[in-house]
Amino acid sequence: MTAPARRERLKFLEFDFDRLPSGRYRARVVLEGDPGDRYVGTAEGVGSEAAELRCAAEAAADALRGAVEEKLSFELLGVKAVRAFDSTVVIVALSCHNGVPAVRLVGSCLTEETPHRCAALAVLSATNRFLGNVIFTR
User: Fold this and answer.
1) Sheet holding 25-32, edge to edge
2) Taking Cα atoms as reference points, which of 63, 77, 56 lies closest to residue 10?
3) Structural contact between residues 59 and 119, judged by C-beta atoms closer than 8 angstroms
4) Which domains, ranges and CATH numbers included, belong to the chain?
5) Which terminus of the chain has a smaller tally of CB atoms within 10 A, N or C?
6) Tell me: the pLDDT tens digits for 89-135?
7) Separation between Cα atoms, residue 26 and residue 29, nearest integer Å
8) pLDDT at 137 over 70
9) 115 contact partners, CB below 8 Å, separation of at least 6
10) From CA 24, how far away is CA 42, in angstroms rounded?
């Protein structure tokens, strides 16, 4: 029997975004590396719609940090929803520190579903190819 192939990219499994009675909100993202290896990221916030997008993206970045352990560090630089081509696109920028100098990564997601979920997916859009080349193929 052959061993299952290692996955070169993280798989997006679950996303939850809840508004709490206190007025705050909470985002939760679950990613999977190799089958069965799950990484959960969470973030909380309060504020505007832009802050809600940032919260969702931060939850995805938190899950990424768990997946790469201490090999890399990610910092969410910004999240923005923009109108382009008669659609809304969520764009994220991250800084990845794996030595000097830091690498800047940008990802996007067309909002076919909720903008919050799209912000989390944009983080994976920004990082998955980089992670496949740097972490998961070694």
Assistant:
1) 11-19, 25-32, 38-45
2) 63
3) no
4) 11-134 (3.30.160.270)
5) N
6) 999 999 988 766 788 999 999 987 789 999 999 999 998 877 765 55
7) 10
8) no
9) 49, 52, 53, 81, 88, 90
10) 13
